[in-house]
Amino acid sequence: MIAEIGHFTLILALAVAIAQMAVPMWGAHVRDARLMAFGDSAAVTQFGLLIVSFLALTHAFVTSDFSVLNVVDNSHSEKPLIYRISGVWGNHEGSMLLWVLILGLFGSAVAVFGRNLPATLRANVLGVQASIAVAFLLFMLFTSNPFERVDPAPFDGRGLNPILQDPALAFHPPFLYAGYVGFSMAFSFAVAALIEGRIDAAWARWVRPWTLAAWMCLTLGIAMGSWWAYYELGWGGWWFWDPVENASFMPWLAGTALLHSALVMEKREALKVWTILLAILTFSLSLMGAFLVRSGVLTSVHAFAVDPDRGIVILSIMMFFTGGALALFAWRAGALRQGGLFAPISREGGLVLNNVLLSVSCATVLVGTLYPLALEGITGEKISVGPPFFNMTFIPLMLPLLFAMPFGPLLAWKRGDVRGVAQRLAFAAGFAVLFTIIVAAMTGPGPWLAPICAALGLFVLFGAVTDLLSRARFGDVSQAEFLRRVVSLPRSAYGTALAHAGIGIMVLGIVGTSAYQTEKIVALKPGERAEVAGYELLFQGIQPTKGPNYSEQIATFEVTRNGAPVTTLLPSKRLYNAPPQPTTEAGIYASWTGDLYVALGDEQPSGGVALRLYFHPLVRLIWIGAVIMFIGGAVSLSDRRLRVGAPQRARSRPSAVPAE
Questions:
Q1: CB 174, CB 591: distance < 8 Å
Q2: What 3-state class would DSSP assign to 240?
Q3: Positive or negative torsion for Cα 152, 142, 298, 277
Q4: Which of 450, 442, 586, 462 is nearest to 510 (CA)?
Q5: Cβ burial 610-625 (10 Å sphere, 16+ → b, else e)
Q6: Lowest mean pLDDT among 78-92, 325-339, 400-414, 608-622
Q7: In the beta sheet, which residues pair with residue 585?
């Protein structure tokens, strides 16, 4: 009965979305306030119906209702509760329901918190947002119904892919989808503005909070996926340039460019054409990611390998919205009036450079991701584009971006003094170079590019601190005045500094683990020892054990350093019951200097067991930096000037003296 309620509310949500798509947009066209106001209540109603539908599917998974085909295919009665819940979105049908739920969430948020938006703009935004929901709800109901029944119901289900039964994977998809779908708001604002023919600084102020919220979620979602791949897959890496990883990275790059472009548009009413185009392309890249993981064209641990027919439908949706938005953009582009001029050396110029480098980087990743697929589709030839290509093309674009990043916030608007900014950054640059030289001398020889990249990471980190000190006029005012200025700085300034500092910290982690990683492959018998990066591991043997829905072989290693005990590592290999699939659980000892990482391999005919031993210097800084970036975005979003958008004019107060 509950499953039928979920299915019925999904159909009702489609009906409400159709009404939300048509009524407020027509109201905006004829300037009817009542019709435009309908969009607000429709958006909230649609979201409420989607919540009921999502909760109904969650109930089916939690209670192991095997009369629902989706539960049969993706759950099992022995699964722990957290993985029965995460199984709701660990499949194609459930993930699409989560997708439209987040669409409804953002639409209802505009209806509730967007009261300061012009009525016509809000109506058009909600109408465009509803049109996206209509497309995906139709796709779900006709090709991917999460409530499809099976009769007779089997006694048990087939289970969830074991590598997805992990705490990080329980939260990774919701954050990732919040990022993907969140960029639909920038798309809806762009299309609504093109329909209305009004694109100005106020529009940029309104669109930035939604873009920032999506960027934050996508940043955290990508970081959680990277962390999961690092410790769960047993290969010791944190990023492999997998096509599905790239599918999430490209919207992040475009979204980052969009954030900075919208800032220029808000302050100077410049880059209007470019900002609108970025808003369209960022969401289009999100739709392309949905197509890649659901079309069956990719083989990846991240992909939903489904039939190509569904992929064709998603491709059609992507082409409809992208093509329609670009056609509307081409029609209106000639009427977009550019804003004020600015010198190349200015904060606007720095943000333009940021946009150019990020956009070219995104295009590079796009080519490397799609070229093998296009070649196979045209000629049937299969090739692989892997890390060597991306490292040779992506990294050279990032180096100048990292170097320019500390300069941007310190440059003045319209016309800047690069020499004066360089003088203020001299301490940050000098300290970064000195620290890098000391570390390079201590670590010994390594790749020649590593010290340069490490110095740039430190330069970005110290540059963020310099920005805050400069804003508070450190050294130019008294200590009391300096502290007063520090406290009174806008939250957006702290948010920007935190986000940039997070990037610097992440760069240090990437350089440390990529350039100075130690790896050994050995075979040990119980009682034998191995050494890696100054750690000595004593293999004590393997013991069998059982988990809630798997059997496990756990190896025990006593770790010492210079004769002193450090820790005990327990890497293992698991065999799940349903489906019967093995996984590797790495043993990791984390410290501030790096991670000691042990992955268990196959048993050897000689009686030993194969092991992969790694030491990853500073690898934790990668995810610490990502979390700091997320916090920086949250701090900026809490700034009232950004959160409330462009304020309405205050209503005139009634006179205290009655008119005679």
A1: no
A2: coil
A3: negative
A4: 450
A5: ebbbbbbbbbbbbbbb
A6: 325-339
A7: 572
| Cα–chain center distance at 139 | 24
Over residues 151-174, the pLDDT tens digits come to 888 888 887 777 777 787 778 889
Measured from the Cβ of residue 390, the count of other Cβ atoms closer than 10 Å reads 20
Lookup result for tokens 């979003």: 637
Alpha-carbon distance of 139 to 161, in angstroms, equals: 24
Which two structure tokens, joined as six digits, stand for 359?
């956009």
Rounded distance, CA 468 to CA 480, Å?
Answer: 16
Tokens 């409330």 belong to 644
User: In the beta sheet, which residues pair with residue 556?
Assistant: 541
Per-residue pLDDT of 311-325, as tens digits, reads 788 889 999 999 999
Q: Which residues contact 276 (CB under 8 A, 6 or more apart)?
A: 190, 193, 194, 199, 329, 336
Task: Report the distance separating Cα 219 and Cα 175, nearest Å.
Answer: 8
Q: Are 255 and 282 in contact (CB under 8 A)?
A: yes
Token code pair at residue 173: 């998809």
- Digit-coded pLDDT (tens) for 35-73: 999 999 999 999 999 999 999 999 999 999 999 999 998
**pLDDT tops 80 at residue 441:** no
Distance, in Å, from the CA atom of 40 to the CA atom of 47, rounded to the nearest integer, reads: 11
Q: Taken in order 205, 208, 213, 214, is the CA torsion positive or negative?
A: positive
- Alpha carbon 385 to chain centroid, angstroms: 23
b/e map 341-371, b = 16+ CB within 10 Å = ebeebbbbbbbbbbbebbbebbebbbebbbe
Query: Cβ-count burial of 382 within 10 angstroms (0-12 exposed, 13-18 middle, 19+ buried)?
Result: exposed
- d(CA 546, CA 299) in angstroms, rounded, equals 31
Q: Which token pair is 126?
A: 């909600």
**Which tokens in the block code for residue 651?**
């209503």
Dump the DSSP string for 233-266: SSS--S----HHHHHHHHHHHHHHHHHHHHHHHH
CB atoms closer than 10 angstroms to residue 415: 15
Residue 164 DSSP code: G
